[in-house]
């Protein structure tokens, strides 16, 4: 199919989600303007997750802006009306896995060296409310607590068993495009209406969520002990 929009996650550190990269993803999602979207990572990675150098450098005000942008990115992808397929062509770790979970369907490479998962707890980072809501709604219930609390990074076939991806194939790009074409062939207004109904409010934040984020989560993300743990992960 030709009438689809490709969002390419592209940046240093295996497409790590620094502010410019997330701003680019949000911009591209808005430019898609109701067209079907294929999401893919530049090079040999989907996204290796949040830019930990940036995370370790932020004070409370900076972290507030950074995590608000992460929320905006989730909303722009998860609530996109038209079909969206993630071509998980390489590592999809933490924030990279979050992007994949926003898609309707996730097609992953079979490369056993690739790692997919939500390892925030292992880094000492509490899930912000919107990411936690997304995981609760997109990860299979039987696997949810293991995925979040074990905080493992899984090879693609294990990620398939856990429900983090939907298919594993040797060459994910053609298969992802084929799945996107199938969904895009449906009447677009009916597809959009059905998707809106299914997802309405799913990752919206309540006032209580916002208070908890302000009073609890922000302090934990900017705590010296967490910053040191993040820096230690970078050194590894």
Structural domains: how many: 1
Listing every helix as H and every strand as E from the N terminus to the C terminus, the arrangement reads EHHEHHEEHEEHHHEHHHH
The geometry reads as globular
CATH class: Alpha Beta
Question: Which structural class do you get from the secondary structure elements?
Answer: alpha/beta
- The share of residues in extended strands comes to 5-15%
CATH superfamily: 2-enoyl-CoA Hydratase, Chain A, domain 1
Structure annotation, total helices:
12
CATH topology name, in short, is: 2-enoyl-CoA Hydratase, Chain A, domain 1
Give the overall average pLDDT.
96
SSE layout:
Layout: E1 5-9, H1 12-15, H2 19-32, E2 37-41, H3 52-57, H4 60-78, E3 84-88, E4 92-93, H5 95-102, E5 105-109, E6 116-117, H6 129-138, H7 141-150, H8 156-162, E7 167-169, H9 172-184, H10 188-199, H11 207-221, H12 224-235
Parallel strand pairs: 1-2, 2-3, 3-5, 4-6, 5-7
What does this protein look like?
- The protein is 55% helix and 11% strand.
- Helix 2 packs parallel to helix 4.
- With 236 residues, it is an alpha/beta fold.
- It has helices spanning 12-15, 19-32, 52-57, 60-78, 95-102, 129-138, 141-150, 156-162, 172-184, 188-199, 207-221, 224-235, and strands at residues 5-9, 37-41, 84-88, 92-93, 105-109, 116-117, 167-169.
- The strands form two sheets. It has a five-stranded parallel beta sheet, with helices on both faces.
- The protein has a single domain (5-188), classed as 2-enoyl-CoA Hydratase, Chain A, domain 1, CATH 3.90.226.10.
- The longest helix has 19 residues, at 60-78.
- It has twelve helices and seven strands.
């Amino acid at each position: 199919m030709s009438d689809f929009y490709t969002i390419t996650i592209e940046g240093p550190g295996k497409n790590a989600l620094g502010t410019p990269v997330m701003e680019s993803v949000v911009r591209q999602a808005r430019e898609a303007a109701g067209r079907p979207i294929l999401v893919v990572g530049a090079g040999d990675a989907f996204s290796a997750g949040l830019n930990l150098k940036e995370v370790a450098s932020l004070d409370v005000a900076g972290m507030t802006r950074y995590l608000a942008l992460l929320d905006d990115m989730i909303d722009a992808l998860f609530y996109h009306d038209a079909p969206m397929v993630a071509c998980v062509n390489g590592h999809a770790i933490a924030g990279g896995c979050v992007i994949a979970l926003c898609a309707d369907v996730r097609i992953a490479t079979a490369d056993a060296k690739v790692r997919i998962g939500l390892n925030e707890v292992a880094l000492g980072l509490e899930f912000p409310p919107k990411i936690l809501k997304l995981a609760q709604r997109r990860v299979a219930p039987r696997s949810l607590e293991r995925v979040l609390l074990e905080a493992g990074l899984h090879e693609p076939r294990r990620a398939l068993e856990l429900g983090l991806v939907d298919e594993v194939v040797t060459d994910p790009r053609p298969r992802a495009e084929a799945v996107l074409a199938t969904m895009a062939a449906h009447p677009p207004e009916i597809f959009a209406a059905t998707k809106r109904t299914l997802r309405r409010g799913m990752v919206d934040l309540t006032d209580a969520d916002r208070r908890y984020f302000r009073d609890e989560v922000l302090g934990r993300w900017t705590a010296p002990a967490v910053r040191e743990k993040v820096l230690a992960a970078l050194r590894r």
